Amino acid sequence: MAFSDTDILIQTGEGRYLQELISIHGVSGFQEIEEKYLLSIPADCGVVAIGGSAVYSEKAMSHLKSLGAVVYLQIALASLKTRLGNLVERGVVMTPGQTLDMLYEERWGSYRDKSF
Predict the structure, then answer these.
(1) What is the pLDDT of residues 19-42, one digit of tens each?
(2) How many CB atoms lie within 10 A of CB 98?
(3) CATH, residue 12
(4) 15 Cβ partners below 8 Å, 6+ apart?
(5) Helix 6-14 to helix 18-39 angle, to the nearest 10 degrees?
(6) Which of 28, 42, 60, 90 could bond 38 through an S-S bridge, CB–CB 3.0 to 4.6 Å?
(7) How many Cα atoms sit within 13 Å of 26 on the Cβ side?
(8) Phi/psi of residue 12, each to 5°?
(9) Residue closest to 8 by CA, chosen among 71, 16, 113
């Protein structure tokens, strides 16, 4: 089955790393770019790994749900911290002053409420 990672699609399509895009366009600008790529995913896409901030776009999530099952892979905060490493270099969509703990709580609520 085909596999796509939307972070890689965005970076390839825009010719920049995620963190560069966030720095240049800001959080809301990056989310617009991300939404554009998420909405362009075709019906025959296979398995798609989406970035954690995709959940902020209702249109994108509706589109993804129309393509098939959407599965949320839950991970403990401590494990997530280890996996992510340097958040600045990783290109994590966070507002200024927001910690990973705060982001985790915010997104956990969004994921839970989306009824995956």
Answers:
(1) 999 999 999 999 999 999 999 999
(2) 14
(3) 3.40.50.300
(4) none
(5) 110
(6) 60
(7) 3
(8) -70, -45
(9) 16
Q: Which residue has the higher pLDDT, 38 or 112?
A: 38
Single-letter amino acid code for the residue at 51 = G
Q: pLDDT digit string (tens) for 54-79?
A: 999 999 999 999 999 998 888 999 99
The number of distinct structural domains making up the chain is: 1
Which pair of structure tokens corresponds to residue 104? 């985790």
Q: What is the mean pLDDT of residues 9-15?
A: 97
Separation between Cα atoms, residue 6 and residue 49, nearest integer Å: 6
**Whether the model pTM is above 0.85:** yes
